[in-house]
Amino acid sequence: MPDISLTTTVLLCLAALGAGWVDAVVGGGGLIQLPALMLGLPSSLPPAYALATNKAVSIVGTSGAAVTYVRRTPVDVKLSVRIGLAALAGSMGGALLAGGISKDVLRPAIMVILLLVAAFVIFRPSFGSAPATGPVTRQRVLLAILLAGGGIGFYDGLVGPGTGTFLVLALTALLHLDLVTASATTKIVNVCTNLGALVMFSYQGYVLWQLAALMAVFNLAGGMIGARMALKKGSGFVRGVLLSVVCVLVVKLGLEQWAA
Question: Which of 38, 85, 133, 179 would disulfide-bridge 238, Cβ 3.0–4.6 Å?
Answer without folding.
Answer: 179
